[in-house]
Amino acid sequence: MASLPTSCPSCGDQLLAKRLACPGCGTEVEGCYALPGLASLKAEDQRFIVQFVESSGSLKEMARLLGVSYPTVRNRLDEIIARVVRARALQEDDDERDSQ
Amino acid sequence: MSATASDVAGSAARRSVSHLLFRPFACIAGGRSLLVGLAAIMLAGFLGSLSHTHFDGAIDMHTGRPAATSVFLSEGLVNWLAMSVALFLLGKLVSRADFRALDLFGTQAMARWPTVLAALAALAPPYRRLVSSITTQALQTGGFAAERADVVLGGLPMLVALLTIVWMVALMYHSYSLCCNIRGARAGLSFVAALVAAEIVSKIVIVRVLLG
Q: Can you tell me the distance from the alpha carbon of B123 to that of A52, in angstroms, rounded to the nearest whole number?
């Protein structure tokens, strides 16, 4: 299955989901749905978060799994946290603009 | 022109070699690096005692003055502690990251491993003869006479020793940047400040306490 595009190839803005489909019965739902914050991250960051959860949030275990040192994993997590915070701030700005 | 598979493999191998030489802490940190580093510091001190080579300052290396083996072993520990404490304090001040002291102290110890190579280079007889000529004759008479072969063959280990010290400083910086998660001018300036502070403190402790 193709990977989910999250930003507009033309202007770079965050994309919204307009149509969702059930692969089982074919039902389709149309609307205007914001993607969850985690979906705005790069695929490799999402993989990292899944591994982090699978390791019960242990950075030591992550370091062992990835074959890197603890500070390397810690720094990677800090980068992702910064991206999530930035994405959330942008989302909140958008929501505020929409409400005005 | 597209790169062939062997070009790609070659460039990856070169990258991994340079990673291993200059950025080893991406893979090793914490307790493991501390053990490796302390072993390297002790080995460099012991090898230094054989050629009377002192690591008498955070980034210093001088050959000639005889002393007890314990002095040579302690010098490395003083240098490591002075540098690690200085970087830890500045890291806490400058970095926004919550870093572990064990990683910084461990990788700083391991960053000193090139001193083993410097101590080995100082064991070369032409190096010792050249240093002896310089320290005994030049300081007393203002000039020195040495065999041309000793100047050439002794100069080579001297160059190796100098390069290993530069390499050690590069490793120290990488350790600091990685463990405290800081980059750019902030990392560079705070590292230089820590290096100067550690050099002063270690020099005072070694000269006044260990050699005094």
A: 49
- Residue at B168 is within a domain: yes
pLDDT of residue B1: 46
Give residue A63's Cα distance to chain centre.
Answer: 21
Q: How many domains does chain B have?
A: 1
Q: Does B36 touch chain A (CB under 8 A)?
A: no
d(CA B161, CA B122): 7
- Among A residues 52-91, those touching chain B with beta carbons less than 8 Å apart: 67-72, 74-75, 78
Q: How far apart are CA B209 and CA B200, in angstroms?
A: 14
Calculate the average pLDDT of chain B.
Answer: 89
A2 within some domain: no
Name the residue range of residue A54's domain: 36-99
Query: Which helix H or strand E contains A17, and what residues bound it?
Result: strand A16-21
CATH of the domain at A89: 1.10.10
CB spacing of A70 vs B29 below 8 angstroms: yes
ipTM of the complex in this document = 0.81
CA of B100 vs chain A CAs: smallest distance (Å): 8
Boundaries of domain holding B166: 29-210
B1 in a structural domain:
no
**HSE (side-chain half, CA atoms, 13 Å) at A68:** 15
Exposure of B98 by Cβ count < 10 A (0-12 exposed, 13-18 middle, 19+ buried)?
A: exposed
Position A55 in a domain: yes
The reported pTM is 0.83
Domain membership of residue B22 (yes or no) is no
With respect to residue B8, please indicate whether it lies within any of the assigned structural domains. Answer: no
Counting Cα atoms < 13 Å in the Cβ hemisphere of A85 gives 6
Residue B196: band (very low, low, confident or very high) from pLDDT cuts 50, 70, 90: very high
- Name residue B62's beta-bridge partners: B54
d(CA B56, CA B77): 11
Tens-digit pLDDT profile for residues B134-144 = 777 766 776 66
